[in-house]
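S1.2 Input.
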Amino acid sequence: MTRTHTQKTTKPGLITLGAGHVRQEAEALGFELTKAQGTTLAQYLNLLMKWSRSMNLVGKTTWPEIFRDLAADSLYLAGFVAAQALPERPLSLDLGAGAGLPGIPLRVLWPAGDYVLVELREKRAIFLRQAVAELGLPGVRVVHGRVEEVGPELTRMGLAGRAGDTRADLVVSRAFMPWPKLLPLAAQLIAPGGRLIILSNEQPPADPAELPGFVLVDSRDYPSTERTRYFWSLSPDAGAGSEGVPAPESASR
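S1.3 Output.
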């Protein structure tokens, strides 16, 4: 018997989702969420849609579009991240966190260690702080500022990765900047043996020379509503040395 879920309308045009809506969409993609996970994801989508009415946080307008085209990436990403060689309690940086995608849904499914959402735009940083507070996500912090200046903020928060300093064990990037420009910037932020995970619409380059300062250790494709997408997992090249990494360009987001 197919269960249907009633959507409650609190204001004209504003739909309040329940855990059942999200769990049903996830099940259609092959994922089984707990009731608690479904509830938290529904709360996040409700917040996202509410704030988007005045701030235009995402281009999508309905919750199924937001879930299938944006949030669903995090369901695939959680399994990919969990398969990486990371410490038990990693320090993770999400560069250009925007409206919290993929970071916030990722943390619902993968709550390991400390996860820092780095966002330059003030309004989005305000939204992120509000969402993290309302959802009660463990180990999630928000830094409002430039990526290049995140180190002092991590020190102030008392956060450190496996190297004993503010270099991260995991750096996640989705559409933050073109990946050739991202690599030298990420090289300054990531600890030896760490992972840089890039969400991309293209396969990783076949030529290792196109990834200066990094080696490709893993990749995976996954389906989306529009096209096949890819995760790349890169690790700093221990043999490259600083001369093998170009100087980073300033990030504008």
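S1.4 Remarks. Residues 1-14 have pLDDT under 50 and may be disordered.
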